Amino acid sequence: MKKIFLHIISVVCLSLITISVDAQDLLHFSQYFNTPIFVNPANTGFDPTHDYRIGGNYRNQWPSFGSPYQTMSIWGDAQLFNDKFENGWVGLGGNISKDVAGGGSLTSTKGFVSLAYHQVVGDNSLLSVGFGIGMVNQRVDPSTLTFNDQWNGQIFDIKLPTSSQIIYSSIYYLDLQVGMNYAYFASDNVYLNAGFSVSHLNHPSESFYAINNVATQIPFRYTAFLNSNIKIENLWILNPNAYVSKMATTWEIVAGLNANRNLSGDGTSQLILGLYYRNSDAIIPMIGYQLNDLKITVNYDATISTLSSYNQARGAYELSIIKSGFFGAANKSLNETKCPKAIRF
């Protein structure tokens, strides 16, 4: 009986944590490098080796519990006006994502459009600035929720009255973000990239209650990343990288390494291996495969926090698919002439 009670309490706590995480807008994809325009709007159209990218991501978190936390995203971006700006171009992109927590108790749907400008600086640098605007919808099903004052001493009884009256089951708000990005192509074998962005510039209000004050405003979210590509002969490309995000008093830090192994000699076929660490939360091994311009990667989050005793260390499964390409042979030639040379096989 004690084990059952502890299990119930843990599920309730997890549900509350899930809602808090969604409101804090921090935990999303472990493969943050495969959701570039979500991390920073300045990444929109930031791909020196292609004209466009289309990606999809899916994450299933805490699957050992009955109602896992699921996150889905579809995104795409492209380079525009390569022939209109000297040593520069415009990036245009969009992203639609959806979070489903606790079997549908809380659902968040977000749609963003982002615009960026990229300027080649000197012979080896690229500077980018970007802006994003989006609409967010948060929905909750009050019939699936219980509150502290509905505990009758044995169970949470949804028939008991509660002082926590949810007024709105669906809310909408506008969200703004801005970012910048700098890339340095040190040589044919070394590339460095860093970026910084701020989200929730307009401090949107998020509340299902009839309240709209400072306490319901979403605080700024600050995000920074640093990565590098290092080519070793024609066999490996190493990609050490790190991601840091802060919102109010909550931090998320993810750091690790990708390694691409050239399987075909010309780089058309690559094996992708990776290992990451999220601070005080999970060890994240990753594996993938790239064929020409199609890349598929999967990872598994193994929980190392105290939560592992409840979820058997099964934190999350995640899948990413990205297709890149060119609009035409002429545009490809222009792109390669204007951009600094990217690291590739």
Question: What does the model show?
Answer:
The longest helix has 23 residues, at 2-24. The chain has a 14-stranded antiparallel barrel with strand order 1-2-3-4-5-6-7-8-9-10-11-12-13-14. Mean pLDDT is 83; it is low at 1-24. The chain has helices at 2-24, 36-39, 308-311, 329-338, and strands at 52-61, 69-80, 88-101, 106-121, 125-140, 170-185, 190-199, 221-232, 236-247, 250-262, 269-278, 282-291, 294-303, 314-325. It is mainly β and 345 residues long. The chain has a single domain (2-338), classed as Porin, CATH 2.40.160. A hairpin with a 2-residue loop joins β9 (236-247) and β10. It is built from 4 helices and 14 strands.
Low-confidence stretches: 1-24
Mean pLDDT: 83
Question: From the alpha-carbon coordinates, what is the Rg to the nearest angstrom?
Answer: 22 Å
- The end-to-end span amounts to 60 Å
Tally of distinct domains: 1
Order of secondary-structure elements: HHEEEEEEEEEEEEEHEH
Please indicate the percent range of residues in DSSP E strands (runs of 2 or more).
Answer: over 45%
The CATH topology turns out to be Porin
What profile does the largest beta sheet have?
Answer: 14 strands, antiparallel, barrel
Name given to the CATH architecture: Beta Barrel
Number of helices: 4
CATH superfamily: monomeric porin ompg
Order of strands across the biggest sheet?
1-2-3-4-5-6-7-8-9-10-11-12-13-14
Structural class assignment: mainly beta
Helix-residue proportion: 10-25%
Shape: globular
**CATH first level:** Mainly Beta
How many runs of DSSP E, i.e. beta strands? 14
